[in-house]
Amino acid sequence: MISERMKAFTANSSVIRAMFEEGKKMAALYGKENVYDFSLGNPSVEPPKSVKEAIIKILNNESPNFVHGYTNNSGYEDVRKYIADSTNREFGTKFDVENIVMTCGAAGALNIIFKSILNPDDEVIVFAPFFGEYNAYVKSYDGKLVIVEADTETFQLNTEAFKSKITDKTKAVIINTPNNPSGVVYSEDTLKKLSEILVEAENKIGHPIYLISDEPYRRLVYDNIEVPFVSKYYKNTFVAYSFSKSLSLPGERIGYIIANSELDGFEEMMNALNVANRIMGFVNAPSLFQRVLPYCMDEKADIETYDKNRKLLYSMLTDLGFECIKPEGAFYMFPKTLIKDDVAFCNSAKEFRILSTPGSAFSCPGHFRLSYCVSTETIERSYDSFKALAKKYLG
Questions:
Q1: What DSSP string describes 39-56?
Q2: 3-state secondary structure of 371
Q3: 377 exposure class (CB count in 10 Å sphere: 0-12, 13-18, 19+)
Q4: CA-CA distance, 377 to 347, in Å (whole number)?
Q5: From-to residues of CATH 3.40.640.10 in the chain
Q6: S-S: 361 plus which of 15, 135, 166, 177, CB 3.0-4.6 Å?
Q7: What's the gap between Cα 294 and its chain centre?
């Protein structure tokens, strides 16, 4: 018999994954080309050619025992040095190898952070809309997720509502920029305001509040938008990064944590992250893809396809009467549903072979998420189905 904890997790398993599995069934029934699956954020752009070239070069020139052997829990020192130097060039920071832990993607990064900082019943504040797995991650370490309701006018952080959520049990705050599912990039003004509130709260409650910035979409931005680097505004900051989206490598599970040197208890914290990496069973990030990163991590993501899809889908939906914030980053769109019940609306969309994710899965009901990291042809072919869906509710 499975544990009581896992009973709760399985009962609330991912809506996104469930929709993806349903899409496969519908594709078998109607033909893949006749099902418009916008449910999963699986990159459709191929990885840069330099990834394959790097793998071949490494396997041909580096010792197999070195490439495929254990690394220390933080990862290869030369790779961490490369990441630190690259980050410093891009953002004017002053990181070094000791600031970085290589991880199994951003999800692995978040889990070892929570393992390192949370005591039972500690509170972690998150801003809606947010990636639903945060709830499971926090609960896995006996923490409590506290949700700040969304500002659905701008989808910037709702800092006024945030103030009332802080208690003496607040241990951390999670932000995700560019945001999944809204596609909004949090502005410098927003981050400065957040920092001011956190500093005031730390002084009042007498212990650090850690800011965790989940940034797998940092390099997927449009219209020359800049993503502010969060640790420049607040000292108790972790940045969790993944190459799953920027280099189209979701299955390779490669990412990292950068911890601010001024973070409270920095040396002890870095030791805790390394021990958490080991005892949670990750041991170390995938060794081959650590070696690959210096050859390709500075490449700019090929976002032309995503940008084309973004403009096409946004234009199509707004012309049909849907209301939506135009995304600034990532590859998601988050329109309002045409009825109040977003779950019923997404079920109704399936009648027209459109697969989407209800906003309530992101704690933001009344919206639905569309992932436009699909083929452009899929968006073009979906027009008649979206038109029929709009007609059903708008006439």
A1: ------SPPPHHHHHHHH
A2: strand
A3: exposed
A4: 23
A5: 49-296
A6: 15
A7: 22
Q: Hey, which residues does 333 pair with through a beta bridge?
A: 370
Look at domain 4-47+302-394 and name its CATH class.
alpha beta
- The helix/strand/coil state of 357 is strand
Whole-angstrom Cα distance, residue 278 to residue 109?
A: 12
Domain with CATH 3.90.1150.10 in the chain: 4-47+302-394
What is the pLDDT at residue 45? 94
CATH C-level class of 49-296? alpha beta
CB of 218 within 8 A of CB of 224?
no
Closest by CA to 104, choosing from 133, 136, 75, 72, is 75
The first and second tokens of residue 44, run together, are 């459709």
Spans in the chain with pLDDT lower than 70: 12-17, 20
Question: 């045409």: which residue's tokens?
Answer: 338
- 384-393 long-range contacts, CB within 8 A, separation 24+: 385/36, 385/352, 385/353, 385/354, 386/316, 386/317, 386/320, 386/322, 386/352, 386/354, 387/320, 388/352, 389/338, 389/348, 389/349, 389/352, 389/354, 390/320, 390/321, 390/322, 390/338, 392/348, 393/338, 393/339
DSSP SS3 for 170:
strand
**Which has the closest alpha carbon to 91: 202, 238, 300, 231?**
231
* Torsion angle in degrees (nearest 10) through CA of 310, 316, 322, 325: 20
Torsion of CA 51, 181, 120, 241, to 10 degrees: 20
- CA-based nearest residue to 263, from 44, 90, 99: 99
Cα dist from 108 to 43, 51, 248, 283, whole Å:
19, 22, 17, 11
pLDDT of res. 16: 66
The model's pTM? 0.95
Strand, helix or coil at 1?
coil
Rounded Cα distance between 15 and 368, Å, is 12
* CA–CA distance, 196 with 115 (Å, rounded to integer): 26
CA dihedral (40, 41, 44, 50) positive or negative: negative
Residue 29 to residues 22, 35, 85, 386: CA-CA distances in angstroms? 11, 9, 51, 20
Question: Which two three-digit tokens encode residue 389?
Answer: 């869906």
